[in-house]
Amino acid sequence: MKTSGKSTDDRATSAPPLQLEDEKRGQVLHELDKILESRFFRSAGRSKQFLKYVVQHKLEGHSEVLKERTIGVEIFERPHDYATGEDPVVRVQAGEVRRRLDQYYQATPTRSLIQIELPIGSYSPLFQEHPTVGASQGSLPSDSSLDLEPRKGRRRKRYWIMAATGLVLALGAGMVLIPLHRRAVQESVMKQFWSPIFATTQPVLICLAESVVYRPSEELYRRYSRTHPGTFRTEVERTNQVLPLDPSEAISWSDIFVYADYGVARGDAYAGVTLAALLGKIGKPSQVRIGANYSFEDLRNSPAVVVGAFNNRWTMHLTSNLHFAFVERNGQYSIREQTNGGRAWETRLDKKGAVAEDAAIVARLLNSKTGQFTIAVAGIGGTGTQAAGEFVTNPQLLEEGLRSVPAGWQKKNLEVVLQTTVTDSIPGPPRVVAAYSW
Q1: In terms of residue numbers, what domain contains 241?
Q2: Is the pLDDT of residue 264 over 70?
């Protein structure tokens, strides 16, 4: 009776999986579990699903499914013939996963044997040995990425191995030197961009706006609950559920009140977190200031990063006379080049009225109106601010984005205009569309 797809001889001659390979898989899966349970992924359902999908399929050797269209169909339930050029959902989510991975490894002083990365331009993850873990631990080779396939041809004659050694060393040196040089360039650009913050011992102020937020009064909730028994009985329900009043129902000004505990925009919060993580990584103390907790006098005494645009009066004040500025006209918000015939950028909405494209300004001012080194990280909308925060904290994005900027920007004031494609309220990788230095 036939019990297997392989004959008895085949089974006898097939080598069992190496224990070392099993160990590597276990290390990768252990690291994946740690990442998915971290605060950066725990509540991000799509990012968790995406990362788990690509890692598991890479481990199982199914690299053929790590394609944009396949991921779009399997994870985002797109039709098999959907236009990937018009629907960047996979590219945007991959960018979000990369951002969260970067935040995780910046904030986690891990001693893990494995570091999971998702290279830009690819959906096939890399499993790298953590640089702080030496080969003396005997768990991993020093390859730039983990090879999970059993090596073939191990019993070839010794002279073939010796003959190939020179070629392998030459190629290996090239393969190592290129990424090392690339990383050095990225780190150099990041260092040059942020170096003025070290001109003073004062901490960097990360300045977030606090918008005015109105909330229904307790009486309004009680009135609704009387006609809809069982609703809005707890603060959790009142805070996390929309009060579905009849649009025609009249309410008075006394039915709402200013709720001071809320007010920081989501995109601003994302940018603030990434900025604080970066400053901590490079060893510069920082202080987060929100709303009325900082003044112009504070900005005069410390280097600062002001976050947000139309919701942050200090951003608007500091950038009002720059080459690129935020402008509000007839209820429309835009970024405009303040020259005759200058260019303009606005948000673009999709058919459902959601933001599909946002724009932002990153202004690096060596001597701003405050007399201190100041950076503005601000979008027309919250997604633009989030993308701008990612731009100034991601070495690869910063290095790529500043390639087109004229030489000598390090000693000048600099403005760049960014655009980002937004999918499901998540901004994709920002791209530089204009720049000016003086």
Answers
A1: 215-258
A2: yes
